[in-house]
Design brief:
Blueprint lengths: L11 H9 L2 H26 L2 H6 L15 H7 L2 H34 L5 H10 L5 H15 L5 H25 L3 H9 L4 H12 L1 H16 L3 H6 L7 H12 L3 H21 L1 H9 L5
Helix pairs in contact: 2-14, 4-14, 5-8, 5-11, 5-13, 6-8, 8-11, 11-14, 11-15, 13-14
Amino acid sequence: MTTLHAPDRKRPAARLAQWAGGGLVQAVLAIIGLLWLTPALGLFLASLRSEEDNATTGWWHAFTDPGGLSFDSYTALLKDAGIVQAFWNTVLISVPTTVVVVVVAALAGYAFAWLEFPGRDWIFLIVVGLLVVPVQVGLLPVAKLLGGLGLFGSIPGVVLFHVAYGLPFAIFLLRNYFAELPQEMLEAARMDGGGEWRIFVQLVLPLGRPAIASLAIFQFLWVWNDMLVALIFADSDSQPLTVALQSQMRQFGSNIGVLAPGAFLSLIVPVAVFFAFQRHFVQGVMAGSVK
């Protein structure tokens, strides 16, 4: 007896995925990636050339005259006390902000997802409503508040502003991710005698690592590249690297000897952070897309 099988018909999504994995598509994506990296390459080569060369010819001439490349501009940059202080100010603003936002958002996200307390849904609706409040709306009121507290113009003041405006999105993201965890798994942990803190630390945090890593990358990149908030809330002693480079443009016009290496230094740190955590970042972005 012969059994007839229905023809194997792939779903449109499967056919699209198979087509996207072809060599032609990968070649096109590689070309797009190279084009996307071209400005960064140009900035790096410009930072290695002298000011005279950059003033007379474009950065692509470095390929025909590689002997003119040197790290003298970086040596001079590292001797600039203002730029070095601005770099460390950026670190002191970005790292604590990212850590505080991730920790508080993880705790609040777990509470909103799995704990029962009075007004939970209403408080979460307020958090969601804060997502639509633009940063510009809070600049003057928060500046007045920080001035009354004596924090205006200081690094803690800038950190507090970034934490306040970063928490609504962070809580919303982690709450939705934690809510997708199997309820049976958490109930089994409670039946085994696990408290809420132990469940959060030993069970929820490891399972939520992709979403937490994605949040940390987004938050770090946003704060590291920020200039608007720092222009208003930071003074000359607490200004980050973005404001320091902007002041160089305002004072010296086209001071390429400082701007090019400083801009590349400001660029390479977030790129390094992204590539260091890209595996967790991709997992967090794709989380929930496949059932």
